[in-house]
Design a protein that fits this description.
single chain; 5 helices; Aminopeptidase; alpha+beta; seven-stranded mixed beta sheet; 168 residues
Length: 168
């Protein structure tokens, strides 16, 4: 995956603090999608959570790091989920200071190019129904609605998730 002005790095357990700091830079996002600011284990959970039947070798957490060494965006990508030809984008999180410069669009394009190179044919994601800015981004970049589902967070907060997909 490439973006000319960023270094793309595969993140691991040693990067937990950097991811956590990025999440804590936008408590309003977490309040919107899970009803509370980011918890102290938000980054750890991102690095470790897997759906049933998937292995850690199928999960990739990447950071797009600027020239100053600061993570401008982080993504959570799962290979071959829910089927062999579809990949799942569990999260795309752009730092508040990096929004409004089309970074999200460029990251999505880079992800799609990467998945195509790996033989994938589609990218699927879920977006909280209240996150209208993200939904607009996804629609602008070719995603279409498939179905909606209810998500109940550990704190009891309920979200309607729109599942979207883009053919590559």
């Amino acid at each position: 995956m490439e973006l000319p002005e960023y270094t793309v790095r595969l993140m691991g357990q040693n990067d937990e603090a950097q991811i956590q700091a990025l999440f804590e830079s936008d408590p309003d996002y977490f309040r919107l999608v899970q009803g509370a600011p980011p918890g102290p284990a938000e980054a750890k959970d991102l690095l470790n959570e897997l759906p049933a039947g998937k292995e850690s070798r199928d999960k990739f957490v990447y950071a797009f790091v600027d020239r100053d060494g600061v993570a401008a965006a982080v993504i959570d990508l799962l290979r071959s989920y829910p089927d062999d030809e579809t990949w799942y984008l569990g999260l795309i999180f752009v730092a508040p200071t990096q929004r409004g410069i089309r970074l999200g669009t460029r990251v999505l394009d880079a992800i799609c190019a990467h998945i195509r190179q790996q033989g994938g044919r589609a990218l699927r994601l879920g977006v909280d129904h209240r996150n209208v800015r993200a939904r607009a981004l996804y629609e602008r970049t070719g995603f279409h609605f498939i179905y909606e589902r209810l998500r109940v967070h550990p704190n009891g907060f309920e979200s309607i998730i729109d599942v979207l997909e883009r053919t590559l």
